């Protein structure tokens, strides 16, 4: 069985999406652009809620605008401090949680995107931006980047989880939903039974995008899934030990049916964490040294109705995160083989 898993991995990772100048293959270079299409036939009819799917935390935050106003997700005290130009530079170090663009994340195998959005103070139009302390790119630009990838990879499915909204009234929500419709059109999957969502079903319907909308506004549109269908418990800790304990506990409490499940394998800085590593930023202070231990936990997991489903991480390119999560699906195939023995 181990030989089979290695062969599958070699097949899936046979190309490099964007070769780097040195010619070496790094975690961010390995191409998992078609990993769903490459899964064995037996897994085509397994509910997506039972598969292992890699995701990114604050997926859009690979770029934030130091020149824009501080976002409405921040306190008044932070907004006052940010009048000092140096403060925004330091904020950027703690707001950025990814290195890869949407396209690069998709090519690396990421299929779940954690999205937080906001209008921008002073804007006269209804434009919506990604937000994490500072404003990111326009949501429309991100959606178009994702749609372009999906058009080129028609068997890949993505989860777009709009879970935080700031400074948005009904007009802003209508504008955002219209943008989503315009970007994905027939690729949008209507909300229905979670258990009916398999690769085969979606391929037959030519649907590739599941939109989760954590706001009552979802009731007005058939293609918006309610946020309760994709719970994402948050550990809110700087301790790897406490994080792993939390992940194990929430997995044991996972509902066996009726929803997807996000395991947020992330550490969250406290005020004193930021104070101690002010210049170093999130990546150098908290993530870089702890991510290998978190990945070790991922390697021990198994997908299934009571196992892991979607797993998210900061800086998904620092380790072989996406491939490690994808390979957990081989365990489902091994179970099938053992059952036949």
TrEMBL record:
CDD domains tied to this protein: PI-PLCXD1c (cd08616)
PANTHER family from the UniProt entry: PI-PLC X DOMAIN-CONTAINING PROTEIN 2, PTHR13593
UniProt keyword terms in alphabetical order: Hydrolase, Lipid degradation, Lipid metabolism, Transducer
SUPFAM superfamilies to which the protein is assigned, alphabetical: PLC-like phosphodiesterases
Organism superkingdom: Eukaryota
UniProt key word Ribonucleoprotein: no
Gene3D superfamilies, A to Z: Phosphatidylinositol (PI) phosphodiesterase
Example GO molecular function: phosphoric diester hydrolase activity
Record's protein name: Phosphatidylinositol specific phospholipase C X domain containing 2
One Gene Ontology term from the biological process aspect of the record: lipid catabolic process
Residue ranges of domain Phosphatidylinositol-specific phospholipase C X in the record: 42-214
